[in-house]
Amino acid sequence: MTSHNNNKTALLPLHDALRTGDHDQAKAIFFDLMTQDVSVKISAPFHALNGGEMLWGELSVTLLEAFPQMEKGDFIFMAGRGWGNSSDEDLVGFEGDFIGLLSKSWLGEYWHYCLLWYGPKGIGAARGHDEIAGIVLSSFCKGLSQDIRNLEGSVFFGHENYVAFAGWPSAQVIHSVNRFLGLVTTGKRVNRPSLDFLRVENGQVRENWVMVSMIGIYRQLGLDVFDRMAQMVNGKDAA
User: Fold this and answer.
1) Which domains does the chain have, with CATH numbers?
2) How far apart are CA 12 and CA 15, in angstroms?
3) How many other C-beta atoms can be found within 10 angstroms of the C-beta atom of residue 175?
4) In the chain, N or C terminus with fewer CB closer than 10 Å?
5) What does the pLDDT read at residue 205?
């Protein structure tokens, strides 16, 4: 077995503990692997750290408190000899994603706890994290699910304490919940044109105006709103 395979084997228990979400086991293995003076260079919002205790305390504990069910899935796990400035070093690389449900504020979040969310017709308005989660996440995001963002075709800009995002469409979604928007589930994938304005106050979003072309979405689902209104008006006139 080569030294590179040995290095991968040494890190495999940590890899498995993170993958299965066994945080206690991950912590024990982590301290067994890391020296007290280990130098850590990490991306923002964290900063360079020295020592395993500091790394676990500042990074892992805060993450695990906010994401208690967090696990890590790797799709690349490799080891080899460095070259250039690292020609005398044996290196191991992981590439993957951390997956978890945010259940507690982490790094202060960006959404004010009294955020006012003004949604489009048919969805409504909400105030605070719980109401927004109930209205936006529970109904809107479930009713129009499997969101595929069109970021390349969208625009972002800011002015003073306002930020705007617009996409025509901003995403493609599937109409997937029965009676959402008053319609039987169609299973159709439709474009969702939208425009967001956000007002920032002391570094957090305080108000969010969300405009979605609901008439356009209805039309893609096979319902012409104006034709339906005309039928209703004509029906009343006939009566």
Assistant:
1) 3-99 (no CATH), 111-238 (3.10.450.50)
2) 5
3) 22
4) C
5) 92
